[in-house]
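Key idea: predict the complex, not the pieces.
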Amino acid sequence: MGLEAVLQKDGFLTTTIDAIVAWSRKSSVWPMPMGISCCAIEMIAAADPKYDIARFGSEVMRFSPRQSDLMIVAGTVTYKMAQVVRRIYDQMPEPKWVIAMGACTSSGGMYRSYSVVQGIDQFLPVDVYTAGCPPRPENLLNALMTIQDKIGKTKARDFQNRSLAELEHSQN
Amino acid sequence: MNTKELIVEKIKEKFGESVEEVSDFRDDLCITIKKDQIVNLGKYLKEDPDLQFIMCKDVTAIDWATRKKRFTTVYHIYSFKLNYALRLKSNIDDNPPTIETVSFVWQSANWYERETWDMYGIKFINHPDLRRMYMPEGFEYHPLRKDFPVLGIPGSLPLPFKAE
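Result:
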């Protein structure tokens, strides 16, 4: 079917380390499903056969932050929950990315209230904001593709020997 | 004698002077009692064999903002025997507001009173475990008071550190 069918002998290709590392990184983004409220249902729907997040190599929803690259914050984040979200984010290994899924995480949404953080970018470096309340699965997949574009432009050495503060800044 | 008349008569007979108001608005019977009698009234309503209000469904409060007796505590109780839901109220005039706990009468009132303390800052005297219910420990305000701003007090709830 693929390239291997055409090859008669051992093949080789030339590329750069950066290109192949970035390509493999962006083709296997493992999400940490931070499903806090109703957006989580749409996030789950994105993993079902109809929308099939596996087409983008992200079907492995890891429930351990230590095995994930991408945090999908899906739902209203209260001040109390903010501490938990941040702690889980801190436990994820570098390099890592964040999707703010839905109106609540992006801006507080309809919860203009003392208990809800008015946008998670107050305590997390967000890469992609997703509109909608909740966003449809297509919208989440679009956010994932945007992240993939972003990862595709990174270089392998971008994440070498850098302090946490620098990393957060560059990912913002 | 119907249920309502029975309840009102029994309460008036036992508590007489302490009953401040009996209202029957849209078929909801509501008894306003003096603050110091709330526990006795609760005990009586629960233990009287004709009434048996054994279930406390909710405890909450009202902040009247400008009224002299600023707070009113509200108790919703239920009798399976009579199949009847009754509302009790009690006006609080002291500052900071305090009232005796009913958690020894109805166990379920324990958490309801914690919630009321958290949201309105009404202190329930003799409550076994009066900690905040929703807001983080160390939070200094009571969000459902009328003088609390909708978006909260800036800086009163800490956010995790973010590098600049």
